[in-house]
Amino acid sequence: MQAKLVVQGLTHHYPDEYTGEDVHALDNVSLEVEDGIFAAVVGPSGCGKTTLLNILAGLLPYREGHVKVDGVDVHGPGPDRGVVFQEHAILPWRSVARNIGHGLEIQGVPADERQRKVAEFVELVGLGGFEDRYPHELSGGMKQRVSLARTLCSNPIVMLMDEPFAAVDAQTRITLQEELNRIAIATRKTILFITHNVDEAAFLGDKCFIFTRRPGKLKATVKINIPRDRRIWKDLINDSEFTNHRDEILTLVREEVSTLGDD
Amino acid sequence: MATTSPSLAPSRVVPSRRWRRFTKEGGAEILLLIVGLLLVWSIISSIIPNPSRYLPAPLVVFFSSGELIWKGLFPNYVGQTLYRLILGSILGLGVGIPFGVLLGLNRTVSDMFYPIMNFFQSISGIAILPIIVVWWGNSEKTVFTVILYTALFPIAFNVLSGVRSVPRIYVNAMRTLGASNYCIVRDVILPGALPYIATGARLGIGFAWRAVIAGEMLTGRRGLGWWIFTAQDTDHTDQVILGMLMIGCIWILLDRYALRPIEADTIQRWGLVQR
Q: Which residues of chain B have a CB within 8 Å of the CB of A82?
Protein backbone atom coordinates (compact mmCIF):
# COMPACT_ATOMS: atom_id res chain seq x y z
CA MET A 1 0.00 0.00 0.00
CA GLN A 2 1.22 3.44 -0.79
CA ALA A 3 2.27 5.70 2.04
CA LYS A 4 0.09 8.73 2.79
CA LEU A 5 3.04 11.08 2.90
CA VAL A 6 6.08 10.58 0.70
CA VAL A 7 9.14 12.81 0.59
CA GLN A 8 11.81 11.98 -1.99
CA GLY A 9 15.22 13.60 -2.37
CA LEU A 10 14.12 16.91 -0.89
CA THR A 11 16.89 19.50 -0.84
CA HIS A 12 16.34 23.10 0.15
CA HIS A 13 18.42 26.25 0.27
CA TYR A 14 17.29 29.73 1.27
CA PRO A 15 19.01 33.08 1.75
CA ASP A 16 19.38 34.13 5.37
CA GLU A 17 16.91 36.86 6.27
CA TYR A 18 19.56 39.21 7.69
CA THR A 19 22.92 38.33 6.19
CA GLY A 20 21.66 37.12 2.83
CA GLU A 21 24.01 34.14 3.06
CA ASP A 22 22.90 30.88 1.55
CA VAL A 23 21.48 28.50 4.16
CA HIS A 24 21.51 24.83 3.22
CA ALA A 25 18.55 23.69 5.31
CA LEU A 26 17.69 20.25 3.94
CA ASP A 27 19.88 17.80 2.09
CA ASN A 28 18.40 14.94 0.08
CA VAL A 29 15.71 14.03 2.60
CA SER A 30 13.55 11.00 1.83
CA LEU A 31 10.94 9.60 4.16
CA GLU A 32 7.55 7.90 4.14
CA VAL A 33 4.66 7.96 6.58
CA GLU A 34 2.14 5.15 6.11
CA ASP A 35 -1.60 5.43 6.73
CA GLY A 36 -2.51 5.90 10.39
CA ILE A 37 1.13 6.13 11.48
CA PHE A 38 2.33 8.71 14.00
CA ALA A 39 5.74 9.87 12.83
CA ALA A 40 7.95 12.09 14.97
CA VAL A 41 10.78 14.14 13.52
CA VAL A 42 13.54 14.80 16.06
CA GLY A 43 16.74 16.76 15.68
CA PRO A 44 18.86 19.51 17.13
CA SER A 45 17.57 23.04 16.75
CA GLY A 46 18.37 24.53 13.37
CA CYS A 47 18.32 21.14 11.66
CA GLY A 48 15.66 22.17 9.16
CA LYS A 49 12.68 20.56 10.92
CA THR A 50 10.51 23.64 10.59
CA THR A 51 11.68 24.17 7.00
CA LEU A 52 10.55 20.61 6.25
CA LEU A 53 7.16 21.25 7.81
CA ASN A 54 6.67 24.51 5.94
CA ILE A 55 7.46 22.77 2.67
CA LEU A 56 5.05 19.94 3.45
CA ALA A 57 2.40 22.50 4.42
CA GLY A 58 2.91 24.21 1.08
CA LEU A 59 3.93 27.50 2.67
CA LEU A 60 7.43 27.27 1.24
CA PRO A 61 8.02 26.42 -2.43
CA TYR A 62 10.66 23.76 -3.13
CA ARG A 63 12.65 23.04 -6.26
CA GLU A 64 14.62 19.86 -5.68
CA GLY A 65 12.83 16.65 -4.80
CA HIS A 66 9.26 15.47 -4.52
CA VAL A 67 6.55 15.74 -1.88
CA LYS A 68 3.41 13.63 -2.31
CA VAL A 69 0.31 13.38 -0.16
CA ASP A 70 -1.90 10.45 -1.03
CA GLY A 71 -0.02 10.12 -4.31
CA VAL A 72 -0.58 13.75 -5.34
CA ASP A 73 2.27 16.26 -5.70
CA VAL A 74 2.18 19.06 -3.15
CA HIS A 75 2.22 22.59 -4.53
CA GLY A 76 0.93 25.31 -2.24
CA PRO A 77 -1.18 24.93 0.88
CA GLY A 78 -4.37 22.90 0.92
CA PRO A 79 -6.89 21.41 3.32
CA ASP A 80 -5.60 17.88 2.61
CA ARG A 81 -2.76 18.78 5.00
CA GLY A 82 -3.81 20.19 8.36
CA VAL A 83 -1.21 22.14 10.32
CA VAL A 84 -0.94 22.78 14.04
CA PHE A 85 1.61 25.53 14.63
CA GLN A 86 3.98 26.10 17.51
CA GLU A 87 2.69 29.57 18.27
CA HIS A 88 -0.92 30.31 18.88
CA ALA A 89 -2.33 30.57 15.42
CA ILE A 90 -6.00 30.74 16.34
CA LEU A 91 -7.81 34.01 15.71
CA PRO A 92 -8.34 36.19 18.81
CA TRP A 93 -11.54 37.70 17.37
CA ARG A 94 -13.31 34.39 16.96
CA SER A 95 -14.83 32.38 19.77
CA VAL A 96 -13.59 28.84 20.41
CA ALA A 97 -16.44 27.31 18.41
CA ARG A 98 -16.02 29.69 15.49
CA ASN A 99 -12.27 29.07 15.40
CA ILE A 100 -12.78 25.31 15.36
CA GLY A 101 -15.38 25.54 12.61
CA HIS A 102 -13.37 27.99 10.50
CA GLY A 103 -11.95 25.38 8.13
CA LEU A 104 -15.44 24.00 7.46
CA GLU A 105 -16.73 27.53 6.96
CA ILE A 106 -14.04 28.07 4.32
CA GLN A 107 -15.02 24.83 2.63
CA GLY A 108 -18.64 26.00 2.55
CA VAL A 109 -20.07 23.32 4.84
CA PRO A 110 -23.68 24.25 5.81
CA ALA A 111 -24.13 25.77 9.27
CA ASP A 112 -26.07 22.90 10.87
CA GLU A 113 -23.59 20.26 9.78
CA ARG A 114 -20.77 22.54 10.86
CA GLN A 115 -22.28 22.92 14.30
CA ARG A 116 -22.59 19.18 14.70
CA LYS A 117 -18.96 18.61 13.70
CA VAL A 118 -17.70 21.41 15.91
CA ALA A 119 -19.57 19.98 18.90
CA GLU A 120 -18.00 16.59 18.21
CA PHE A 121 -14.44 17.93 18.16
CA VAL A 122 -15.03 20.28 21.11
CA GLU A 123 -15.80 17.13 23.10
CA LEU A 124 -12.86 15.20 21.63
CA VAL A 125 -10.29 17.79 22.71
CA GLY A 126 -12.01 18.36 26.06
CA LEU A 127 -13.18 21.93 25.57
CA GLY A 128 -16.83 21.37 26.51
CA GLY A 129 -18.30 24.49 28.14
CA PHE A 130 -15.73 26.81 26.56
CA GLU A 131 -17.36 27.10 23.11
CA ASP A 132 -18.24 30.77 23.49
CA ARG A 133 -15.00 31.90 25.11
CA TYR A 134 -12.43 33.98 23.27
CA PRO A 135 -8.78 32.87 22.99
CA HIS A 136 -7.46 35.53 25.39
CA GLU A 137 -9.59 33.93 28.11
CA LEU A 138 -7.91 30.53 27.65
CA SER A 139 -4.64 29.08 28.95
CA GLY A 140 -1.83 28.19 26.56
CA GLY A 141 -2.72 24.51 26.67
CA MET A 142 -6.38 25.21 25.88
CA LYS A 143 -5.41 27.39 22.94
CA GLN A 144 -3.44 24.49 21.49
CA ARG A 145 -6.46 22.25 21.99
CA VAL A 146 -8.50 24.73 19.94
CA SER A 147 -5.80 24.72 17.28
CA LEU A 148 -5.79 20.92 17.21
CA ALA A 149 -9.57 20.73 17.00
CA ARG A 150 -9.64 23.28 14.18
CA THR A 151 -7.23 21.16 12.16
CA LEU A 152 -9.04 17.88 12.93
CA CYS A 153 -12.39 19.40 12.04
CA SER A 154 -11.35 19.88 8.40
CA ASN A 155 -10.57 16.15 8.25
CA PRO A 156 -7.15 16.41 6.55
CA ILE A 157 -5.44 13.36 5.05
CA VAL A 158 -2.23 14.17 6.92
CA MET A 159 -1.74 16.23 10.07
CA LEU A 160 1.45 18.24 10.39
CA MET A 161 2.38 19.44 13.86
CA ASP A 162 5.22 21.88 14.49
CA GLU A 163 6.34 21.60 18.13
CA PRO A 164 2.79 22.31 19.27
CA PHE A 165 3.52 21.76 22.96
CA ALA A 166 6.84 23.61 23.13
CA ALA A 167 5.32 26.73 24.64
CA VAL A 168 3.27 25.14 27.45
CA ASP A 169 4.44 24.22 30.94
CA ALA A 170 5.77 20.74 31.72
CA GLN A 171 2.66 19.47 33.50
CA THR A 172 0.31 20.63 30.75
CA ARG A 173 2.64 19.18 28.14
CA ILE A 174 2.40 15.69 29.66
CA THR A 175 -1.39 15.92 29.73
CA LEU A 176 -1.52 17.16 26.15
CA GLN A 177 0.78 14.38 24.97
CA GLU A 178 -1.54 11.77 26.49
CA GLU A 179 -4.57 13.51 25.02
CA LEU A 180 -2.97 13.63 21.59
CA ASN A 181 -2.29 9.91 21.85
CA ARG A 182 -5.94 9.32 22.72
CA ILE A 183 -7.01 11.50 19.76
CA ALA A 184 -4.64 9.62 17.45
CA ILE A 185 -6.33 6.38 18.52
CA ALA A 186 -9.81 7.85 18.06
CA THR A 187 -9.21 9.47 14.66
CA ARG A 188 -6.53 7.13 13.22
CA LYS A 189 -4.93 10.12 11.57
CA THR A 190 -1.62 10.02 9.76
CA ILE A 191 0.53 12.48 11.70
CA LEU A 192 3.94 14.06 11.21
CA PHE A 193 5.00 15.61 14.49
CA ILE A 194 8.03 17.86 14.77
CA THR A 195 9.82 18.16 18.10
CA HIS A 196 13.22 18.63 19.70
CA ASN A 197 12.05 16.79 22.80
CA VAL A 198 13.30 13.20 22.76
CA ASP A 199 10.86 11.97 25.43
CA GLU A 200 7.98 13.42 23.50
CA ALA A 201 9.10 11.76 20.26
CA ALA A 202 9.55 8.37 21.89
CA PHE A 203 6.25 8.63 23.76
CA LEU A 204 4.15 9.58 20.73
CA GLY A 205 5.92 8.12 17.72
CA ASP A 206 5.34 4.82 15.96
CA LYS A 207 8.28 5.90 13.90
CA CYS A 208 10.93 8.46 14.79
CA PHE A 209 12.97 10.21 12.13
CA ILE A 210 16.22 11.52 13.58
CA PHE A 211 17.78 14.42 11.67
CA THR A 212 21.37 15.54 11.54
CA ARG A 213 22.38 19.09 12.25
CA ARG A 214 22.32 21.50 9.34
CA PRO A 215 22.15 20.73 6.48
CA GLY A 216 19.38 18.46 7.74
CA LYS A 217 19.66 14.88 6.52
CA LEU A 218 17.74 11.86 7.69
CA LYS A 219 20.18 10.16 10.01
CA ALA A 220 18.19 7.21 11.32
CA THR A 221 14.68 5.86 11.65
CA VAL A 222 13.64 4.26 14.93
CA LYS A 223 10.47 2.17 15.01
CA ILE A 224 8.59 1.95 18.28
CA ASN A 225 6.08 -0.86 18.51
CA ILE A 226 4.47 -0.03 21.83
CA PRO A 227 0.69 -0.28 21.35
CA ARG A 228 -1.04 3.08 21.53
CA ASP A 229 -3.34 2.12 24.39
CA ARG A 230 -0.32 1.39 26.56
CA ARG A 231 1.13 4.83 26.08
CA ILE A 232 0.46 6.47 29.43
CA TRP A 233 3.31 8.30 31.15
CA LYS A 234 2.71 6.64 34.52
CA ASP A 235 3.27 3.21 32.95
CA LEU A 236 5.88 3.98 30.33
CA ILE A 237 8.26 5.94 32.50
CA ASN A 238 9.72 2.67 33.88
CA ASP A 239 8.94 0.46 30.89
CA SER A 240 12.23 -0.92 29.56
CA GLU A 241 10.98 -1.08 25.97
CA PHE A 242 10.16 2.64 26.10
CA THR A 243 13.34 3.67 27.90
CA ASN A 244 15.50 1.65 25.49
CA HIS A 245 13.97 3.40 22.52
CA ARG A 246 14.23 6.76 24.19
CA ASP A 247 17.90 6.23 25.05
CA GLU A 248 18.59 5.09 21.51
CA ILE A 249 17.06 8.27 20.12
CA LEU A 250 18.76 10.39 22.74
CA THR A 251 22.16 8.96 21.81
CA LEU A 252 21.53 9.64 18.12
CA VAL A 253 20.43 13.21 18.77
CA ARG A 254 23.25 13.95 21.20
CA GLU A 255 25.87 12.88 18.68
CA GLU A 256 24.57 15.73 16.53
CA VAL A 257 24.56 18.26 19.33
CA SER A 258 28.07 17.35 20.51
CA THR A 259 29.52 17.50 16.99
CA LEU A 260 28.40 21.11 16.91
CA GLY A 261 31.55 21.77 18.92
CA ASP A 262 32.23 25.41 19.61
CA ASP A 263 29.77 26.49 16.93
CA MET B 1 -18.73 63.44 68.91
CA ALA B 2 -18.38 59.90 67.80
CA THR B 3 -20.56 58.78 70.72
CA THR B 4 -23.46 61.05 69.86
CA SER B 5 -26.58 58.96 69.41
CA PRO B 6 -27.70 58.62 65.80
CA SER B 7 -31.02 60.35 66.46
CA LEU B 8 -29.29 63.54 67.52
CA ALA B 9 -26.71 63.60 64.75
CA PRO B 10 -27.63 65.44 61.58
CA SER B 11 -28.52 62.84 58.95
CA ARG B 12 -25.43 62.27 56.88
CA VAL B 13 -25.67 62.70 53.17
CA VAL B 14 -24.89 59.34 51.61
CA PRO B 15 -23.43 59.84 48.14
CA SER B 16 -25.48 58.12 45.50
CA ARG B 17 -23.98 55.32 43.47
CA ARG B 18 -24.03 57.49 40.37
CA TRP B 19 -22.07 60.22 42.14
CA ARG B 20 -19.50 57.73 43.42
CA ARG B 21 -18.97 56.37 39.92
CA PHE B 22 -18.69 59.91 38.60
CA THR B 23 -16.00 60.82 41.11
CA LYS B 24 -14.16 57.55 40.58
CA GLU B 25 -13.81 58.26 36.87
CA GLY B 26 -12.23 61.61 37.66
CA GLY B 27 -15.46 63.50 36.94
CA ALA B 28 -15.12 65.67 40.02
CA GLU B 29 -11.67 66.90 39.00
CA ILE B 30 -12.87 67.70 35.50
CA LEU B 31 -15.89 69.55 36.88
CA LEU B 32 -13.62 71.53 39.18
CA LEU B 33 -11.34 72.45 36.30
CA ILE B 34 -14.27 73.62 34.16
CA VAL B 35 -15.66 75.73 36.98
CA GLY B 36 -12.19 77.17 37.51
CA LEU B 37 -11.77 78.04 33.84
CA LEU B 38 -15.22 79.68 33.75
CA LEU B 39 -14.25 81.66 36.82
CA VAL B 40 -10.98 82.87 35.27
CA TRP B 41 -12.89 83.73 32.10
CA SER B 42 -15.44 85.73 34.10
CA ILE B 43 -12.71 87.61 35.97
CA ILE B 44 -10.89 88.52 32.77
CA SER B 45 -14.18 89.69 31.21
CA SER B 46 -14.91 91.86 34.21
CA ILE B 47 -11.56 93.68 34.18
CA ILE B 48 -11.01 94.28 30.47
CA PRO B 49 -12.57 97.28 28.71
CA ASN B 50 -15.45 96.64 26.32
CA PRO B 51 -15.90 92.96 27.13
CA SER B 52 -18.92 92.57 24.85
CA ARG B 53 -16.57 93.10 21.91
CA TYR B 54 -13.44 91.31 23.13
CA LEU B 55 -14.54 88.63 25.57
CA PRO B 56 -18.12 88.50 26.82
CA ALA B 57 -18.53 86.76 30.18
CA PRO B 58 -19.75 83.14 30.22
CA LEU B 59 -23.18 84.07 31.53
CA VAL B 60 -23.57 86.75 28.84
CA VAL B 61 -22.74 84.19 26.16
CA PHE B 62 -25.22 81.79 27.67
CA PHE B 63 -28.13 84.21 27.95
CA SER B 64 -27.66 86.25 24.81
CA SER B 65 -27.41 83.10 22.74
CA GLY B 66 -30.17 81.20 24.47
CA GLU B 67 -32.77 82.89 22.39
CA LEU B 68 -31.13 81.75 19.18
CA ILE B 69 -31.09 78.18 20.40
CA TRP B 70 -34.79 78.12 21.28
CA LYS B 71 -35.70 79.77 18.00
CA GLY B 72 -34.22 76.82 16.15
CA LEU B 73 -31.80 78.82 14.04
CA PHE B 74 -28.75 77.51 15.82
CA PRO B 75 -29.80 73.81 15.91
CA ASN B 76 -30.44 74.10 12.20
CA TYR B 77 -26.81 75.14 11.58
CA VAL B 78 -25.45 72.48 13.91
CA GLY B 79 -27.51 69.93 12.01
CA GLN B 80 -26.09 71.10 8.69
CA THR B 81 -22.54 70.81 9.96
CA LEU B 82 -23.14 67.39 11.52
CA TYR B 83 -24.70 66.13 8.32
CA ARG B 84 -21.58 67.17 6.41
CA LEU B 85 -19.32 65.58 9.00
CA ILE B 86 -21.16 62.25 8.97
CA LEU B 87 -21.44 61.98 5.21
CA GLY B 88 -17.86 63.17 4.77
CA SER B 89 -16.59 60.67 7.33
CA ILE B 90 -18.43 57.83 5.63
CA LEU B 91 -16.79 58.90 2.37
CA GLY B 92 -13.40 59.10 4.07
CA LEU B 93 -13.77 55.63 5.61
CA GLY B 94 -15.16 54.20 2.39
CA VAL B 95 -12.14 55.34 0.40
CA GLY B 96 -9.48 55.28 3.14
CA ILE B 97 -10.00 51.75 4.47
CA PRO B 98 -9.81 49.90 1.11
CA PHE B 99 -6.91 52.11 0.06
CA GLY B 100 -5.04 51.41 3.32
CA VAL B 101 -5.68 47.67 2.99
CA LEU B 102 -4.33 47.70 -0.55
CA LEU B 103 -1.20 49.57 0.57
CA GLY B 104 -0.73 47.24 3.53
CA LEU B 105 -1.05 44.09 1.45
CA ASN B 106 1.21 45.03 -1.41
CA ARG B 107 4.74 46.32 -0.87
CA THR B 108 5.10 47.47 -4.47
CA VAL B 109 1.93 49.55 -4.29
CA SER B 110 2.88 51.07 -0.92
CA ASP B 111 6.44 51.87 -2.01
CA MET B 112 4.94 53.63 -5.02
CA PHE B 113 2.29 55.62 -3.16
CA TYR B 114 4.03 56.35 0.12
CA PRO B 115 6.16 59.35 -0.96
CA ILE B 116 3.22 60.90 -2.80
CA MET B 117 0.96 60.41 0.20
CA ASN B 118 3.57 61.90 2.49
CA PHE B 119 3.78 64.91 0.17
CA PHE B 120 0.04 65.53 0.16
CA GLN B 121 -0.29 64.86 3.86
CA SER B 122 1.75 68.00 4.47
CA ILE B 123 -0.70 70.11 2.45
CA SER B 124 -3.59 70.72 4.81
CA GLY B 125 -7.20 70.71 3.73
CA ILE B 126 -7.30 74.50 3.98
CA ALA B 127 -4.34 74.78 1.61
CA ILE B 128 -6.04 72.75 -1.10
CA LEU B 129 -9.38 74.52 -0.66
CA PRO B 130 -8.64 77.45 -2.98
CA ILE B 131 -7.93 75.18 -5.94
CA ILE B 132 -11.07 73.15 -5.23
CA VAL B 133 -13.07 76.39 -5.13
CA VAL B 134 -11.62 77.26 -8.51
CA TRP B 135 -12.84 73.92 -9.85
CA TRP B 136 -16.22 73.58 -8.22
CA GLY B 137 -17.01 76.99 -6.75
CA ASN B 138 -18.51 77.51 -3.31
CA SER B 139 -20.52 74.32 -3.57
CA GLU B 140 -21.37 71.44 -1.30
CA LYS B 141 -19.12 69.31 -3.50
CA THR B 142 -16.18 71.53 -2.53
CA VAL B 143 -16.83 71.10 1.18
CA PHE B 144 -17.11 67.31 0.85
CA THR B 145 -13.93 67.13 -1.21
CA VAL B 146 -12.02 68.93 1.52
CA ILE B 147 -13.46 66.66 4.23
CA LEU B 148 -12.62 63.55 2.25
CA TYR B 149 -9.11 64.80 1.53
CA THR B 150 -8.51 65.61 5.20
CA ALA B 151 -9.89 62.35 6.61
CA LEU B 152 -8.25 60.13 4.01
CA PHE B 153 -4.60 60.31 5.15
CA PRO B 154 -4.90 59.49 8.85
CA ILE B 155 -7.29 56.66 7.98
CA ALA B 156 -5.18 55.20 5.16
CA PHE B 157 -1.89 55.46 7.09
CA ASN B 158 -3.37 53.79 10.17
CA VAL B 159 -5.05 51.02 8.19
CA LEU B 160 -1.72 50.43 6.42
CA SER B 161 0.07 49.95 9.76
CA GLY B 162 -2.82 47.82 11.00
CA VAL B 163 -2.63 45.44 8.06
CA ARG B 164 1.12 45.11 8.52
CA SER B 165 0.67 44.40 12.23
CA VAL B 166 -1.39 41.24 11.65
CA PRO B 167 0.81 38.28 12.67
CA ARG B 168 2.02 36.30 9.66
CA ILE B 169 1.13 33.06 11.43
CA TYR B 170 -2.60 33.85 11.24
CA VAL B 171 -2.37 34.24 7.50
CA ASN B 172 -0.34 31.04 7.15
CA ALA B 173 -2.80 29.12 9.30
CA MET B 174 -5.68 30.31 7.12
CA ARG B 175 -3.83 29.31 3.96
CA THR B 176 -3.33 25.79 5.30
CA LEU B 177 -7.07 25.64 5.92
CA GLY B 178 -7.53 26.34 2.23
CA ALA B 179 -8.65 29.98 2.53
CA SER B 180 -8.77 32.18 -0.57
CA ASN B 181 -7.14 35.63 -0.57
CA TYR B 182 -10.56 37.25 -0.26
CA CYS B 183 -11.33 35.07 2.72
CA ILE B 184 -8.00 35.95 4.37
CA VAL B 185 -8.68 39.66 3.99
CA ARG B 186 -12.20 39.32 5.38
CA ASP B 187 -11.50 36.93 8.26
CA VAL B 188 -7.93 37.82 9.23
CA ILE B 189 -6.61 41.09 7.83
CA LEU B 190 -9.62 43.33 8.52
CA PRO B 191 -10.39 42.08 12.04
CA GLY B 192 -6.67 42.02 12.87
CA ALA B 193 -6.25 45.59 11.72
CA LEU B 194 -9.38 46.76 13.55
CA PRO B 195 -7.62 48.45 16.50
CA TYR B 196 -5.68 50.54 13.98
CA ILE B 197 -8.76 51.12 11.85
CA ALA B 198 -10.56 52.42 14.95
CA THR B 199 -7.67 54.74 15.77
CA GLY B 200 -7.52 55.91 12.16
CA ALA B 201 -11.26 56.54 12.12
CA ARG B 202 -11.12 58.58 15.31
CA LEU B 203 -8.21 60.64 14.06
CA GLY B 204 -9.68 61.00 10.58
CA ILE B 205 -13.09 62.05 11.84
CA GLY B 206 -11.39 64.44 14.26
CA PHE B 207 -9.52 66.10 11.40
CA ALA B 208 -12.66 66.03 9.27
CA TRP B 209 -14.49 67.91 12.02
CA ARG B 210 -11.95 70.72 11.77
CA ALA B 211 -12.11 70.62 7.98
CA VAL B 212 -15.89 71.01 7.95
CA ILE B 213 -15.73 74.17 10.02
CA ALA B 214 -12.93 75.64 7.90
CA GLY B 215 -14.67 74.63 4.68
CA GLU B 216 -17.89 76.29 5.75
CA MET B 217 -16.08 79.49 6.68
CA LEU B 218 -14.33 79.79 3.37
CA THR B 219 -17.10 78.62 1.06
CA GLY B 220 -19.91 80.37 2.91
CA ARG B 221 -22.03 77.22 3.16
CA ARG B 222 -24.42 77.47 6.10
CA GLY B 223 -23.33 75.68 9.26
CA LEU B 224 -21.36 76.21 12.42
CA GLY B 225 -18.29 77.55 10.64
CA TRP B 226 -20.35 79.99 8.64
CA TRP B 227 -22.14 80.97 11.83
CA ILE B 228 -18.90 81.91 13.58
CA PHE B 229 -17.70 83.85 10.55
CA THR B 230 -20.87 85.90 10.09
CA ALA B 231 -21.15 86.52 13.84
CA GLN B 232 -17.67 88.05 13.74
CA ASP B 233 -18.68 90.14 10.71
CA THR B 234 -21.70 91.52 12.57
CA ASP B 235 -19.71 92.06 15.78
CA HIS B 236 -21.53 89.39 17.80
CA THR B 237 -18.59 88.10 19.81
CA ASP B 238 -20.91 86.20 22.15
CA GLN B 239 -22.13 84.17 19.18
CA VAL B 240 -18.58 83.56 17.99
CA ILE B 241 -17.78 82.08 21.38
CA LEU B 242 -20.97 80.07 21.46
CA GLY B 243 -20.03 78.54 18.11
CA MET B 244 -16.57 77.64 19.33
CA LEU B 245 -17.94 76.08 22.49
CA MET B 246 -20.37 74.05 20.40
CA ILE B 247 -17.58 72.74 18.18
CA GLY B 248 -15.67 71.48 21.22
CA CYS B 249 -18.67 70.09 23.07
CA ILE B 250 -20.10 68.25 20.07
CA TRP B 251 -16.72 66.63 19.47
CA ILE B 252 -16.45 65.48 23.10
CA LEU B 253 -19.93 63.96 22.91
CA LEU B 254 -19.27 62.31 19.54
CA ASP B 255 -15.99 60.85 20.68
CA ARG B 256 -17.31 59.60 23.98
CA TYR B 257 -20.67 58.24 22.91
CA ALA B 258 -20.13 57.21 19.29
CA LEU B 259 -16.47 56.52 18.53
CA ARG B 260 -15.08 55.09 21.77
CA PRO B 261 -17.88 52.58 22.42
CA ILE B 262 -17.27 50.97 19.02
CA GLU B 263 -13.67 50.42 20.01
CA ALA B 264 -14.57 49.12 23.45
CA ASP B 265 -17.33 46.76 22.34
CA THR B 266 -15.35 44.79 19.82
CA ILE B 267 -11.66 45.21 20.42
CA GLN B 268 -11.61 44.83 24.19
CA ARG B 269 -13.80 41.76 24.03
CA TRP B 270 -11.23 40.09 21.80
CA GLY B 271 -8.42 40.98 24.17
CA LEU B 272 -6.61 42.97 21.49
CA VAL B 273 -6.45 46.12 23.60
CA GLN B 274 -5.91 45.86 27.32
CA ARG B 275 -6.76 48.78 29.51
A: 176-177
